[in-house]
Amino acid sequence: MIPKFRPRRWAVAIGAAAVLISGGLASTAAAVPQATSPKCTLTVPSSPRSETPSSCVAVDVKLDKLPVKGETVALRVSLRSQVHVAHARLTVRVPDTLQLITEGSPLSAPKQVGPWLDAKGVVALDTNKRTFTLHVRATAEGPAQIEANLTDADSPSPEREAHGSVLLTVGTNKPGEEVSRSGVDITSLPGRSGERRSTAASVSKKFAKVPRTGGGTGVVAQVAGQQVCVSGGFNFTNQAGTWLGGRNLTVKLWGKTTANAAQQVYASGLTDNSGAYNLCFTLPVDSMYLLFVEFRSESALWQVTNGSGSVYSTTTPAVYNVTTNRNLGWTAPTAAQMRAWHTFDTLNLTWWWRGSNTSCWTSHETSNCSKITAQWWAGNADGGYYFPGANAAASYIRLRDNDPDSEHLVVHESAHALMHHLYTWWWPNANCAGHLIWGALNTSCAWTEGFANAAAGNVKGDNQFVWPSGSSVNMMNSTWFDSGQPVSITNWQNGDAVEGRVAGSLIDLWNQVDGGKASTINLLLNHRESSFGGYFKNDRPSAGLDTSNNTRNWVYWHTIDYRASLLNSSFEANTSGGQTGTAGWNWTATMGGSFVGNWSTYPANTGSNYAWFGGYGATETETMSQQVTIPSNVNQAWLGYYSRIGTLETDQVAYDTLKVQVVDGTTTTTLGTLSNVNANSSYVYRSYDLSAYRGHTVTIKLLCNEDASLRTDFIVDDVTVNTA
User: Which is the catalytic residue, given 147, 159, 161, 413?
Assistant: First the structure.
């Protein structure tokens, strides 16, 4: 063949290639014009990587002044909305170290929920700001967080919910004592009495324990040289106020032999699967001056830290003159720390699910296991994402203030970390900024996010993703996109560039085909993949996993069509008219040379080769066409392909175009037109209805016209015609 010389075909920079969990410029391109949802801008995540999209509602919380112990002050709660909400559910929560006074407001009298007091009400919102005045009375010193949560009761979704809070430390007005101040330091705090809640019955026997140390027999000791055991338990509450055992967290037994002796650790270990512990040591003296237990939000495998990298710590009250076994009862953290401990406990779920045959996160490691770090601190607004660094130490999960309220979200982010471990610190080059479960962005983002969504739904056993407010979406949505309606939580786009579609497909592959997720976990150990298409078409066959027609139908149920195409659509092998990889296609190019192959400038969507239309910055016309017969006995038929577009054009004017056409006899119909205006940084799936041509033999044609200056690259791959 005669190579086509393209002197200007070097990379066109479109957007930033940030190596994060998300990637690429969002594309709204589709077969026909789509309705668009109102742009929500009132509550915008601090990071574009966040799992939570921007919201059309906002809630702000403000104290008139900082109260000292015994003082009552006004609390202003302001609500804003860009849309009309007939029934907005508002909840204001304070710790039980504050008294919440709701008289004269639309909120109910507060009720006890675990260590908090909740007041709830329903209000109507329009585009005018509404402000309510409540009062709080400080009844105890120490850290406190006042929260307000707002959601649309009729149409719950992350785009119609908001969270606001204010942090303070209550002091006194007495000389020499701590004064009230804004903000909190909750990293290390004394605990409070917990509630005993047996969780042993709910612990599955299949769940392997985290490797642990310590333990003992409970032998009573009276003199130096004999053994003493200290026992008890640790529990916390979730956002609903349910008491749960703190499982597999580090426990340290501290002590002093005399009043003036140095304080040191005498035993350490982990809590068990009910939150209980039993730490034993040999008495160094006949009577220990004091002992206390410290609980830490860390283990050998994961940890929860604040923004400075310090793990959280809660301690029991000290006991004195210890000569025999002691039971310290159940200890709970203060309300301000609860979410740190909830985060730590939720990571157990991913650990038990991970599928490794070693005591590390993956079977790449057998000892000195890499650790997963989750960062959370009260009031944090930058979170809801995973940052994949060059190694475990440089990688972390970051959570916003109320993110731990959703165990699905925490499992989702830790599933990103698990994938990163499986890939041995490699990560697909995808920018998922602004990604949505129901929206098409790019295939790499859909793969990483889809895997994490599938893991969350599979771990929790409900096939859903649940946001911190409680709104949720079911990953098993099989309804096809309605192009006449806006893209939304109830109207998903189609294809493997949509993370929700990938998640549902994975769940069905695990449940209906593979007998569980273990085969996928094992596959990821040895195949670094950046798209669901690559996983399904390339990696599954190489690993001996099923990709039969029946399996492809399961995936098609989720609007991802990998069934056999009526077109000879592969660009990977054979030749036609001197063009590599164009068997079945007829082509023309006014400047001659090859426009099917592979170049370092762009990757293929799948395989190695693709079609590159344009790219000269000079007047040029290129065509590629193939004849296809569409059966008459099918319900529907459609043309689909993947494309990405790079351009040097800066005007929002269509100077360079790629038309997708169908030729039926003497009639040529343009199904869709792409141009430099549609530039994006990753592959987008596009499809067109061919049902009108059932029973016809037609020609599928791609026609590119580039003008005399400022090149545009139209990259096309995986062209298919399918029927159902």
Answer: 413
